[in-house]
Amino acid sequence: MADAAPRLKSLVEQLLGAPLPVRIRAWDGSESGPPGAPALVVRNRRALRRLLWKPGELGLARGWVAGDLGIDGDLYTALDLLAGLIWERGDDARSLGQAVRDPKVRAAVRGLAKMAGPFPPPPPPREEVRRVRGHLHTRRSDRRAISHHYDVGNDFYEIVLGPSMVYSCAYWAGAGSTLEDAQRDKLELVCRKLSLKPGQRLLDVGCGWGSMAVHAAREHGVSVVGITLSQEQAAYARKRVADEGLTDRVEIRVQDYRDVTDGPYDAISSIGMAEHVGAERYLDYARDLYALLKPGGRLLNHQIARRPQKDESAYSVDAFIDAYVFPDGELAPIGTTVTQLERAGFEVRDVEGLREHYALTLRRWVANLEAEWVRAQRLTRPGRARVWRLYMAASALSFERNRIGVNQVLAVRTPQSGASGMPLRSRAWGE
């Protein structure tokens, strides 16, 4: 008799102390749960073992990446329904200690263990980061982390990002705009905020596949040095530069920002890179960039931010993202970022929040990936493709729910005279 799904639903609800808002479809073909809701597909008993050995977000992530768990129905709706149980329970979440003391929870765990079978814990999927001992955010550990995320294959990223090959929040005139137009408008916004002029030198920190460097050189006549730690990104960017006939104005380096010594620069762009720096290194990062700028030079720092926590000392990195997406990545509140930049000597002149813009961008990336799902899996691995689909969809919801934000911070190395060179009218960029 096929009854795994109703048994699972009952045990999981007993464990969580809350009703499941999604259906469950089990490996024996049975289903149980709210009619019309998306289904959490439990494809085998191994999925249960993953959840029992690693309860919470990481166990669910391992099941998803390995293909033991899936979603039948709209992914966004499913994640939205599950968010309250997985990510947003806050102070109401049952701690492991509470669970051990609760007889009903212990009974539910025993029931799930019986369904899972007497087997050892499954190994983590190969896509999971293998941790090594040592300090975070050394040059070596940062290279390894960047390679994990960005050296997935340029063909794969072409599917996700589209022709613009920009891996950061676009700037939307409206929901009807194309992704390529919105990314071009974002690059142009950065150039106007930096007030780039022909003959100036721009340092693009974390240059990715060269989109900002090419746009700034082609449209504003500046000389650009773009730096990245990804060998694959650098090779792709150099080819783009050559194809555009800009080799005399754009240099792409595989280089750590801490090793750049050929300043001063008139302007610096750092778009979607500072999330990799880490809290302990952030002030040094800001000081390094400050030292590379001419007096009066501008920095445009485009960075994802998290919301402040009640207890900042208790904050922990998102388990799924740290294990599968951005190893060693850290998010800080926007107030912390502004403070660190000013401690380094910068005068912060403008902060623009683009939270809704990133939600739109991520939904377009997910749509691109889903439209070429079979080819995307072939270009990388099925598990890696599943990582990116879950990460981008969940991130879109996080931006929409105001769990995280993204901001462009414009800062100036104001000279002692106090003449910042900034326009009198707010956001009259380019004057």
Automatic annotation (TrEMBL):
<dbReference type="GO" id="GO:0032259">
    <property type="term" value="P:methylation"/>
</dbReference>
<dbReference type="InterPro" id="IPR029063">
    <property type="entry name" value="SAM-dependent_MTases_sf"/>
</dbReference>
<feature type="domain" description="Polyketide synthase-like methyltransferase">
    <location>
        <begin position="156"/>
        <end position="392"/>
    </location>
</feature>
<keyword id="KW-0443">Lipid metabolism</keyword>
<protein>
    <submittedName>
        <fullName>Cyclopropane-fatty-acyl-phospholipid synthase family protein</fullName>
        <ecNumber>2.1.1.-</ecNumber>
    </submittedName>
</protein>
<keyword id="KW-0489">Methyltransferase</keyword>
<dbReference type="GO" id="GO:0008168">
    <property type="term" value="F:methyltransferase activity"/>
</dbReference>
<dbReference type="Pfam" id="PF02353">
    <property type="entry name" value="CMAS"/>
</dbReference>
<keyword id="KW-0808">Transferase</keyword>
<dbReference type="InterPro" id="IPR050723">
    <property type="entry name" value="CFA/CMAS"/>
</dbReference>
<keyword id="KW-0949">S-adenosyl-L-methionine</keyword>
<comment type="similarity">
    <text>Belongs to the CFA/CMAS family.</text>
</comment>
<dbReference type="InterPro" id="IPR020803">
    <property type="entry name" value="MeTfrase_dom"/>
</dbReference>
<dbReference type="InterPro" id="IPR003333">
    <property type="entry name" value="CMAS"/>
</dbReference>
